[in-house]
Amino acid sequence: MMVWATEIPLREESTVEGVLELAKCWLAGSPHSQWAASQIPFPSVGKMESVSINDETVCVARAENDTGSWGGLQYIKIEDGATKWTTEIVTFQHKLGVLVSIQIHCDLPGASPEIPKPKKPYFIRQILAKYGGGRDAGIPVHDKPLILKEANVDLAAQIVRGELKNHLPIIYVSSTWKNKSAINAVTLAQWAGGLAHVVVEPSRAFSFALARNTDRQNVYGGAIGIYWPNSNRVRELRPENYSSPRNLATATEDLVRRALLNRLPTSECTWGYLQELLSSQRIADLKASGSREIEEYTQAFDDDSSTKQQRIEKLEHEVRRLKGELQRAEAKATDAQSGIIKAGKEQPFYSGEIRDVILKAIEFGKAQLSPDGRCRHIIDDILKANHMTKEGADLHGEIKRILTTCEKLGREQQKSIEQLGFSFNKTGKHIKAIYHDDPRYSFTMPKTPSDWRGMKNQASDIVSKLFH
Question: Which CATH number fits the domain 136-241, given the four candidates 3.40.50.2300, 3.40.50.410, 3.40.630.30, 3.40.30.10?
Answer without folding.
Answer: 3.40.30.10
